[in-house]
């Protein structure tokens, strides 16, 4: 693949960073669930199935009124917890499903966690990565994405995996030691194509299954800020060189939050550099992302939620009152333009059905002692909330 050569300074990004040399193909062997195996089997019935069975027993006993109360209590929540065959302490980080088979998906996390489901997320089994287990690293799998049967996984320390058969086998792609930063996000963009982002702001694209990668931006964020710090970006002098969070819109636009949360950055396809923006709120930014209508949402430390005025990239936001019980909100996921869910510390789970104008609390995770980090809707019928200590919530619809 032809690549454009840049005149590089020490802080610029290498344009063609990766060369495919001797990638290995390996078959991932399914591992039986660990000590939770019997628990998983015993809890295979979800909560609704349990209530139906309970109702049948109570009906035989003539306790229909109790049955009605149980069913009514269940209807208060649209989520249920799915038990997983993993060790306590694992933080779940990303989830994706094969587009051609919505029942077939993968779940990633810390401590080299890779789980697979073939029933839409009701039950999960561990998958091992032989080439990773032969090493002394304990990988943190950060991001996964599928397009057709092609899938990609990135992690820390630097590891890149590719599949062309819906995850039945994975190929490990060698990476250069010159990679600037840790890989935090990858997006499958087409046949043999993907887009990858590091926490230092490097964006690379491939069009030949990872054999070669080409830089989409000309320098790291640190280098950009060194040139633009005099332009009035408050707090840029305290930048530590990494992102706290990064999110991509369906159109390929990015928004990222600086590590200290004192400003944010955006990038659109075709731009040579990240564009820094002053935050329009008093408190530091926790996370930012894209609404279903193309606008931005913004979360601040301490529990505040803001929505941008209008759509597209802007620095104008308005605060939306939310009942977060004093805990921080960590992520927002959209099921449709009107419906979205926000999740946060100590099991906070909020819902809007009017495009964010007002929010109500769902009590599904009130009794779960975990922080909920990520809300992912695969489609309008499939949704998941990922948290620490192996907490996974499944949308019931």
Overall description:
The protein is mainly beta and 397 residues long. Helix content is 11%, strand content 39%. It has five helices and 31 strands. It has helices at residues 37-42, 47-60, 64-74, 130-133, 221-228; strands at residues 16-19, 24-27, 30-31, 79-81, 92-98, 101-109, 113-117, 125-127, 140-147, 150-156, 159-163, 169-172, 183-190, 193-198, 203-206, 212-215, 243-248, 254-258, 263-267, 275-278, 285-290, 296-300, 305-308, 317-320, 329-334, 340-344, 349-352, 360-361, 372-377, 383-387, 392-395. It has a five-stranded antiparallel beta sheet with strand order 1-16-15-14-13, with no helix packed on it. Strands 2-12-11-10-9 form a five-stranded antiparallel beta sheet, with no helix packed on it. A five-stranded antiparallel beta sheet has the order 3-8-7-6-5, with no helix packed on it. α2 (47-60) packs antiparallel against α3. The protein is globular. 39% of the residues are buried.
């Amino acid at each position: 693949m032809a690549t454009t050569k840049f005149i590089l300074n020490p802080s610029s990004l290498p344009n063609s960073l990766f060369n495919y040399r001797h990638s290995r193909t390996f078959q991932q062997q399914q591992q039986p669930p660990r000590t939770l195996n019997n628990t998983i089997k015993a809890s295979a019935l979800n909560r609704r199935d349990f209530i139906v069975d309970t109702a049948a027993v109570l009906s035989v006993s003539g306790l229909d009124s109790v049955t009605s109360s149980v069913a009514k209590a269940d209807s208060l929540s649209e989520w249920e917890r799915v038990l997983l065959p993993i060790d306590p302490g694992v933080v779940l980080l990303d989830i994706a499903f094969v587009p051609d088979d919505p029942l077939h998906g993968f779940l990633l996390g810390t401590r080299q966690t890779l789980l697979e489901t073939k029933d839409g997320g009701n039950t999960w089994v561990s998958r091992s990565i032989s080439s990773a287990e032969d090493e002394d690293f304990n990988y943190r799998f950060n991001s996964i994405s599928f397009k057709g049967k092609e899938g990609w996984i990135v992690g820390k320390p630097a590891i890149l995996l590719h599949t062309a058969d819906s995850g039945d086998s994975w190929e490990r792609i060698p990476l250069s030691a010159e990679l600037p930063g840790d890989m935090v996000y990858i997006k499958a963009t087409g046949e043999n194509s993907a887009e990858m982002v590091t926490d230092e702001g490097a964006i690379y694209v491939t069009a030949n299954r990872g054999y070669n990668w080409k830089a989409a931006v000309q320098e790291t964020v640190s280098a950009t800020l060194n040139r633009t710090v005099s332009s009035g970006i408050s707090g840029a002098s305290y930048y530590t060189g990494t992102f706290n969070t990064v999110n991509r819109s369906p159109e390929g636009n990015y928004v990222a939050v600086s590590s200290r949360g004192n400003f944010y950055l955006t990038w659109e396809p075709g731009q040579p550099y990240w564009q820094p923006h002053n935050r329009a709120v008093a408190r530091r930014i926790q996370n930012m992302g894209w609404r279903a209508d193309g606008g931005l949402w913004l979360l601040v430390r301490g529990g505040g939620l803001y929505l941008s005025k209008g759509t597209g990239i802007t620095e104008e936001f308005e605060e939306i009152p939310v009942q977060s019980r004093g805990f921080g909100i960590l992520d927002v996921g959209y099921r449709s333009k009107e419906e979205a869910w926000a999740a946060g510390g100590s099991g906070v789970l909020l819902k809007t059905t009017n495009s964010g104008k007002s929010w109500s609390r769902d009590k599904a995770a009130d009794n779960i002692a975990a922080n909920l980090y990520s809300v992912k809707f695969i489609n309008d019928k499939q949704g998941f909330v990922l948290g620490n200590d192996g907490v996974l919530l499944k949308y019931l619809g």
